[in-house]
Each structure stands twice: as C-alpha cells, then as structure tokens.
UniProtKB/TrEMBL annotation:
It comes from Gulosibacter bifidus. It catalyses: N(1)-(5-phospho-beta-D-ribosyl)glycinamide + (6R)-10-formyltetrahydrofolate = N(2)-formyl-N(1)-(5-phospho-beta-D-ribosyl)glycinamide + (6S)-5,6,7,8-tetrahydrofolate + H(+). This is Phosphoribosylglycinamide formyltransferase. N(1)-(5-phospho-beta-D-ribosyl)glycinamide binds at G12, S13, N14. Catalyzes the transfer of a formyl group from 10-formyltetrahydrofolate to 5-phospho-ribosyl-glycinamide (GAR), producing 5-phospho-ribosyl-N-formylglycinamide (FGAR) and tetrahydrofolate.
C-alpha cells in the first residue's frame, strides 16, 4: 500500500478528485493500492474539511510561526514524516519548500503545475500564459527539486487557450486535465509502472 501525504494551500479540488478516485477504485473492487494518510497545509484557510470529513488526519504549519523558511520547512517535514509517507504531493501548495525538505523526501515528492513546463513556471502560470498571448498551455506533474518548477517531468498534457478564456475558465479546464494526470501518476507509482528513482536519475 502506497501511503500518501498531500499538502494544499487552497480549495484542494485536485486532491478531492484523487480522494474520490481512490474511493471509487475501492468500491468497484479494483483498489488503487494507494491511500491518503494525512493532509497538511500552510494556512488554516486551506480546505482541510476534505480530510476531516473522511477521518484523515490534518496538520497546519504556518510560516509566520517560524523565524525563517528553513525552520518552517523543518517543522513541516517533521509533520509529514510522522506519517512515514511513501509519497508526498504538493497539490496546489503555494509555497516553495526549502532544500532540506526536498532532500529528505525527493524523488517521492511531487508537484502539480498548471502549465506545460518548462513554459510558465511559478505561482501565476495561468495568468502568465494568457499575458504572453500563448495559444496553448498545459498541465504537468513533476518531481520536486530545488528549483522553481524545474524538476523531472512525469506526466504532462497540452491544453488549448480559447480566445474567450478568462484566467478562471482556463484554470478550470487545466485542472480537469491535472486531475487525470495526478490520478494516473499515483496509480502508476502504486502499481510500479512509474519508477520515480529512474525518472529522477
Ligand atoms: C492547481 O492548478 C495547481 O496546479 C496549482 O494550484 C491549483 C490548485 O488547485 N499549483 C500551482 O500553481 C503551484 N505553482 P486546487 O487547490 O483546486 O487543487
């Protein structure tokens, strides 16, 4: 069984899709071989109800409670490691994690990103793609390294940008694809068809 810890900052809709896919697979007698053992956040505003309604443990580690980013990262890592995860996913976690955090968990540390990396890295990928006048963008699942969205890519897909798109409509269409990619990635890691060490090598 692949034990997964997921970190979020906001609505957690991609996480919800993953939780539902795990539940559906269980119900239909084809278990995914993965379970979410804890959900963490960097802010109490994050949608942790997703976890509590399912009886999944939660934790919040706020940067402002720590002297610096490294100390915050150490505290976050300690919380994550309490659950001895096989995989940790940053799913709409809107903060850069410090190097010690990456070193402790990578390559089993994934991030989902709403663009076709290496295009449009960073916190405003959807807005940046539109501002650049791009006609297509995408969604990417990758292994986290110490750069900003520079890690090895596991899955990605192109998504067209329509002339009538707003940032919100485009982001919503991207998330539909991201959810599929995320579920497929967790499935692949659980059943051994995706080997993170090989991808990271
Ligand atoms: C997702 O599109 C994710 O890729 C993005 O935040 C959204 C979270 O949505 N993450 C980043 O932009 C990280 N740089 P959700 O909270 O509804 O799942």
């Amino acid at each position: 069984m692949l034990n997964v810890v997921v970190l979020i900052s906001g609505t957690g809709s991609n996480l919800r899709a993953l939780l539902e896919a795990i539940d559906d697979a269980e119900r239909t007698g084809t278990p995914m071989g993965a379970r979410v053992v804890a959900i963490g956040a960097d802010t109490p505003e994050a949608n942790l109800a997703l976890a509590t309604e399912r009886g999944i443990p939660t934790f919040v580690v706020r940067p402002r409670d720590y002297e610096n980013r490294a100390a915050w990262g150490d505290a976050l890592l300690q919380e994550v490691q309490r659950f001895t995860p096989d995989l940790t996913i940053l799913s709409g976690f809107m903060r850069l994690v410090p190097p010690a955090f990456v070193e402790a968990l990578a390559p089993a540390l994934l991030n989902t990103h709403p663009a076709f990396l290496p295009e449009f890295p960073g916190a405003h990928a959807v807005r940046d793609a539109m501002a650049a006048g791009a006609t297509q963008t995408g969604a990417t699942i990758m292994i986290v390294d110490n750069g900003v969205d520079t890690g090895p890519i596991i899955e990605q897909q192109r998504i067209p940008i329509h002339p009538e798109d707003t940032e919100a409509t485009l982001h919503e269409r991207i998330k539909v694809v991201e959810r599929d990619l995320l579920i497929r990635t967790v499935q692949g890691i659980a059943n051994g068809t995706i080997n993170l060490k090989e991808i990271a090598a």
